[in-house]
Amino acid sequence: MPDNQTTTRKAAALAAFQGLEHEPGVAKPDAILTADNVVRRFGGLTAVDVGHVEIQRGSITALIGPNGAGKTTFFNQLTGFDTADAGSWSFNGKAMNGVPAHKVARSGMVRTFQLTKALSKLTVMENMRLGAQGQKGENFFRALIPGSWRGQEDEITKRAEELLVRFKLDAKSEDFAGSLSGGQRKLLEMARALMVNPELVMLDEPMAGVNPALTQSLLGHVKDLREQGMTVLFVEHDMDMVRDISDWVIVMAQGAIIAEGPPDSIMSDHRVIDAYLGAHHDAPLSEEELQQQLHEAEAALEAEAAEEEAAK
Ligand SMILES: Nc1ncnc2c1ncn2[C@@H]1O[C@H](COP(=O)(O)OP(=O)(O)OP(=O)(O)O)[C@@H](O)[C@H]1O
Questions:
Q1: How far, in Å, from the CA of 67 to the mean position of ligand 1?
Q2: Among 40, 41, 42, which residue has the most ligand 1 atoms within 8 Å of its CB, making it the best to mutate?
Q3: Residue 34: which CATH number?
Q4: pLDDT tens string 67-123
């Protein structure tokens, strides 16, 4: 991709947001996805309660928010993996509520999934083939049975091979997905989503568990999606990544959208700071955070012990 093309796409994305108010639900010049009054309750808990939101075509938009804000649940509603209690949303002007996940994916809106245990036991190529179904995977193992592919098989394999080359996973094609490094898994998650040739790619924590050495390469791949004309919406906790690649940031807290704006202004928005601080003060640590703290403490103790050893 020549540099001037790269600059053009990025510039076009930024221009689209110029002059917009930094308010939740603000209208975009060319929305690829629009959602209204989407509600999802789990018993007494309202996990999602989004009044109105629009995603600008051709941009990279980050969806951030403290743990439990409802980001994943909202992703699941939009992509047909879970049923909303209320609300409507449309993709490219077409109503999508009630449409099952594989049809949503085939219509051009696809979300990535972190590799599950079951998918780890399949090869990289098998994962790619499942991606062509526009599915999460577990219920679609029959798609792997030889013969069930018929005429599509060649075409699907060819597309998978091309994508694996692009994501530098072609040498791993016959390896089990479970044997890949954290960064390679993220690449596979992205590559398999592209099997349906989507217009809107929704990435679920694309940087989680990635070795810092691979960060730039992964960021490059995400930016590349926009350079190829796709729209990207991603959920991420890594604020460096959010700052680095997003054209626009949408913030959720307690199920609702509480702020929108360009990355720099969003990071200093008092509503956003309050939401994060509130979450950290009020909520007990999640299992993941607790584990993280324990790992850090262990690593610090080990380092101290090693220093003492060296000093003897
Ligand atoms: N299947 C479920 N059953 C009951 N409660 C659920 C279910 N899925 C999500 N929740 C609850 O809904 C709320 C929103 O969760 P969700 O996972 O969407 O948040 P999130 O913003 O994606 O969080 P994180 O950043 O930690 O992944 C949380 O309180 C969560 O416990």
A1: 8
A2: 42
A3: 3.40.50.300
A4: 999 999 999 999 998 988 999 999 999 999 989 888 899 899 999 877 777 788 889
SS3 string, the chain, reads CCHHHHHHHHHHHHHHHCCCCCCCCCCCCCEEEEEEEEEEEECCEEEEEEEEEEEECCCEEEEECCCCCCHHHHHHHHCCCCCCCEEEEEECCEECCCCCHHHHHHCCEEECCCCCHHHHCCEHHHHHHHHCCCCCCHHHHHHHCCCCCCCHHHHHHHHHHHHHHHCCCHHHCCCEHHHCCHHHHHHHHHHHHHHHCCCEEEEECCCCCCCHHHHHHHHHHHHHHHHCCCEEEEECCCHHHHHHHCCEEEEEECCEEEEEECHHHHHCCHHHHHHHHHHHHHCCCCHHHHHHHHHHHHHHHHHHHHHHHHHC
CA 247 to ligand 1 center in whole angstroms: 26
Whether residue 258 lies inside any domain: the answer is yes
Q: Which domain holds residue 20?
A: 3-108+198-284
- The number of distinct structural domains making up the chain is 1
Which residues contact ligand 1 via a Cβ below 6 A?
42, 45, 47, 65, 67-73
- Calculate how far, in angstroms, residue 172's C-alpha sits from the geometric centre of ligand 1: 34
pTM: 0.83
Higher-pLDDT residue of 118, 220? 220
Question: Tell me: the pLDDT tens digits for 260-312?
Answer: 999 999 988 888 888 887 755 445 566 676 677 677 767 777 777 777 777 76
